[in-house]
Amino acid sequence: MDQKDIIEFCECNVLHPEKIEIAHKNLLDNESISLLTLFFKTFSDPTRMKIILALKETELCVCDLSAVISVSQSAVSHQLKTLRENRLVKYRKEGNVVYYSLDDDHVHVLITQAMNHIKHK
Amino acid sequence: MDQKDIIEFCECNVLHPEKIEIAHKNLLDNESISLLTLFFKTFSDPTRMKIILALKETELCVCDLSAVISVSQSAVSHQLKTLRENRLVKYRKEGNVVYYSLDDDHVHVLITQAMNHIKHK
DNA sequence: TACCTATATGAATGAACGCTCATATAGATA
DNA sequence: TATCTATATGAGCGTTCATTCATATAGGTA
Predict the structure, then answer these.
(1) Distance between CA atoms of residues A29 and B73, nearest Å
(2) Do the chains contact at B44 and A37, CB–CB below 8 Å?
(3) Pick from A40, A46, B87, B101: most CB atoms within 10 A?
């Protein structure tokens, strides 16, 4: 992309072309930005976060989840749908009962790092 | 907390007390949940994500940022306020011009890990 | 078959939020 | 002082989204 094209958008005149060039190299394409922000958005809701924490060590049925995190069955089901769509949980059915578990072991590494960030501020 | 209190909320009856006890130990207090989800929420907006990426290697003034990520000055300023409040950026003033830079070197580790997660799905 | 139960889901509602537009503020300069 | 410019910010608007409520679905059991 041309410097000219990059700069065109701006409404003011205090521009630093060398810095802008460096910054521009670190940007990502829109598709990546979208995937990235949607991923983080999944972790930005308290109900979903509680579900993820609850499933850290053991599978739970919807009823268990509702009880453990004190959220209505319907709300839990709605959020489980979001977590399923983002491939963060998987499930198995046993008769009427659906057992959910984490689909990604690495998730808790991310959460732990975020906690450390918060603590050190 | 008593099993009885935990279970009270649930509307159904298929409960697994042993699993519930394990899950319950991994929950966090409401304050921690709130801090954690607010932290992730900061990364869930495309404009803020672009700002963070742009600032990876160099400081930029508001005008530079607006130009690099092609977002209006006003929108950039609004999002910078959010990033400031979450202590993700710091700034220095030089006359009229305000230079922003990242306040946390670890942030990009988190983003890189998130990217890896997405790629492997 | 009829009914009970665990889970899923559509619609409605209210709250949160990101943008635009207009304007305020503050530093620089004439 | 008067004005110009870079940045900040309040109000308003439209959209997104999490919850509740009502209901659908599907598996079990009598």
Answers:
(1) 21
(2) yes
(3) A40
